[in-house]
Write a structure and sequence with these properties.
Elements (H helix, E strand, L loop, with lengths): L8 H13 L4 H15 L2 H13 L6 H13 L3 H13 L6 H13 L3 H10 L5 H6 L8 H14 L2 H13 L6 H13 L3 H10 L5 H13 L3 H13 L6 H14 L2 H13 L6 H13 L3 H13 L5 H13 L3 H13 L9 H13 L8 H13 L3 H18 L30 H5 L12 H12 L3 H9 L7 H14 L2 H13 L6 H12 L3 H13 L20 H17 L14 H9 L2 H12 L6 E4 L6 H14 L3 E4 L4 E5 L2 E2 L6
Parallel strand pairs: 1-2
Antiparallel strand pairs: 2-3, 3-4
Helix pairs in contact: 1-2, 2-3, 2-4, 4-5, 4-6, 5-6, 6-7, 9-10, 9-11, 10-11, 11-12, 11-13, 12-13, 13-14, 13-15, 14-15, 15-16, 15-17, 16-17, 17-18, 17-19, 18-19, 19-20, 19-21, 20-21, 21-22, 21-25, 22-23, 25-26, 25-27, 26-27, 27-28, 27-29, 28-29, 29-30, 31-33, 31-34
The chain binds one DNA strand through helix 2, helix 4, helix 6, helix 8 and helix 9.
Keywords: Repeat
GO biological process, one term: RNA modification
InterPro entries: DYW_dom (IPR032867), E2_motif (IPR046849), E_motif (IPR046848), PPR_At4g14850-like_plant (IPR046960), PPR_rpt (IPR002885), TPR-like_helical_dom_sf (IPR011990)
Length: 675
Amino acid sequence: MLLETCSTAAEVLRALPLAIKHGLHREYLFHAVLKGHAQGSPLERTMAFFAEMRLAEVRPVVYNLTYLFKAAADRSNLRRGREIHAQLIANGFSGNVHAATAVVNLYAKCRRMVDARKVFDRMLERDLVAWNAVAAGERPDSITIVAALPACADLGSLKAGKSIHAHSIRAEFSSLVNVATALVGMYSRCGALATARLVFERMRAKNVVSWNSMIDGYAQGGDAEEAMRLFEQMLAEGIKPTEVTIMAAVHACADLQDLEMGKKLHKLVAELGLSSNVSVMNSLIAMYSRCRRVETAVEIFEGLRQRGTATLVSWNAMISGYAQNRCGGAALELFRMMVAQRNDAVQPDSFTLVSVIQAVAELSAPPLGNVYVATALVDTYAKCGGVPLARKVFDLAARSTRSTKCGAAAPRGPTRSPSCASSPPAATRAGARGAAGIRRYEGGLRPCAGQDHYSAMVDLLGRAGRLREAWEFIEAMPAVAGISVFGALLGACKIHRDVGMAEKAAERLFLLEPADGGYHVLLSNIYAAAGMWPEVARVRRDMERKALRKNEVHTFFSGDTNHPLKERIYAKLEELMEEIKAAGYVPDASSVHDVEADVQEQLLITHSEKLAIAFGLVSSAAGATIQIRKNLRVCADCHTATKFISLVTGREIIVRDVQRFHHFKDGRCSCGDYW
DNA sequence: CTACTGTGAG
């Protein structure tokens, strides 16, 4: 009871006389308080107490430091971990098995396996615990099994995971909570959500981590609805969520763009005392950005920045938030601030780069005309071993920056969306420009992690109409171009109505067998826009052959005449067109080009959303909400038409396109006509 | 009195 009231060294010192009277040692008291901090306080608080303790000349003992290591490892705080490692060496504890094991664990958790192995190899005495820390036990116990399962998930090897599952059953470990939980995690990260759920449901005893693994499995696996259902169930069962639970739920909320639920979670974060948890706050930044509440995201980000707790992830979340919400100017401004503040811990990485490229693409700045982007790209490709590509980007950049200098990304005044009013504060802008900042990139970027920045780059080149360059860019990529890269090219071909390039892109794309039928629809629409009807039909047949039609929903294509209810659908459509025209709808032909007016209107009328809405109207109960999922972005004409349809039919219509939800009601859309 | 495992933000 004495200890519970002390949290600073001064308080401990004040309590000392009383403690000594009770027969407690001075050291013991400090160590007990430190342990309390390590288990419950933020790492910084724990470190501060440790420093105070040293000032009070309390000699640390081995297990003080092991607690500190655990605190640092749990939060993957490598920098602090290294500091404690130095303390440990300075105090002559490096020979201790427990301490050394904690160091191995720290490096392993922070994904520094080389460092982990170095410390491990230098250990004179090793026990099973130490072996487990490098996940290489010879006679595996249950903890070794638990440690091996995430490795299967990392490798994406369901086969290896299953064989370990079998082994754990033979060794009679499989019903241990930790083993079962690790199995849930392994199955869900390998995409076997149904199996994960089965293991989860069969668990006799579940703990928070079990719930977290299952909920996050759904959240990361794309089933946000199920993630939220399970989250609600967890709360209903009276289990107190942790920061991990919250982050998974926030992620799911962002996916659903469910702002109301997002706000509830934000409140819950405060109630749970998690407002100082940077990771949680970062997930909220991303959630608000996806729900188009950039202002709220900025508030949170600025709060973190002012407290000095913003991390690289925070900056990336905010820059990405701006980019997603078409605030390209603000995104680039924040990017410049990031570079200018000269904080080594917060310098751009490949995540940042993706958002920056998106921002440049959106601003229609000359491709590669932005010297920041270009420099970052050159650096990245050179590091990936793509020297010829780096050279090419460099040449292009040199050519196009001659006229634009650094100015391509200069603030462009008020940006298009009202939500962009919240641009970064001006205080830290000074000195953000110029070559000095760019030099900071040297050595600053890690080699490309995924395909995202390649597809962003292809999108950038493609939108600017530089389709040939985009193609050359893909050919020169040091990595194998994936679905998203060719998808971006195909999208650009749609914008610029380049059938030839579209065919080239589609050929390569379809070899990769995308599960999403949207790309076939995209190609079909490109043909349709060019009036190439036999080709439209060919793509449709191709899709049917590949069974790409989604079976759980009714799927429609532009110009679809194949549905069993087609007569009723087309009749309904005609009726609707009459009604909405009477209500003031004027077809907007800007998304269909180069065909005669009557053909134009015919194309517009038979756009797949309109077909789907008509089907929804003829096949659902009166007054029911109609839900539509679109695998491309909704076109301007369909958007307008849907507003009118919601007005004349009194129905709510919810369209979810690749970008976001559109909630149509009484002639208005939740997106405020901005998407 | 301790160490090793399972969930984790952009």
